[in-house]
């Protein structure tokens, strides 16, 4: 276990006085590919959280889309509250559409097969193959 912990002592983010800190023991086996995968996934999820935060703030600042969210239910975008209160206001078919789109995004693209650690062997953490 001591050798496995020392394998990651020179990674980005390791700082004194703590050094490499892994309280749960995810890196106890010293697997570099698994470590790299976790680092990539951590950055990806962090970016998703930043987008979600902007999605929460933006309607408060710039307003909401004009028009109807569900014309058959006479439900306008302006009628949907911000934040968690929106969960109960969006129609069920709206949630189905959002989940279907998220599944499409996850299952299409360059990483269509189930992710395993070898998929991350040639990636630098934070590099998803496109530039802004």
Please characterize this protein's 3D structure.
This protein has 132 residues and is mostly helical. It has a domain at 32-120. Helix content is 39%, strand content 4%. The chain contains three helices and two strands; from the N terminus they run H-H-E-E-H. The protein has helices spanning 2-6, 32-62, 92-107, and strands at residues 68-70, 75-76. A two-stranded antiparallel sheet has the order 1-2. Strand 1 and strand 2 (75-76) form a beta hairpin. The radius of gyration is 21 Å and the shape is elongated. It starts with a helix and ends in a 25-residue tail after the last helix. The model has no long low-confidence stretch (mean pLDDT 81).
* Sheet of most strands: 2 strands, antiparallel
What percentage of the residues does DSSP assign to strands (E)? Answer: under 5%
Q: Give the strand order, joined by hyphens, for the main sheet.
A: 1-2
Mean pLDDT: 81
The global form is: elongated
Helix content: 25-40%
The secondary-structure class comes to: mainly alpha
Q: How many E strands?
A: 2
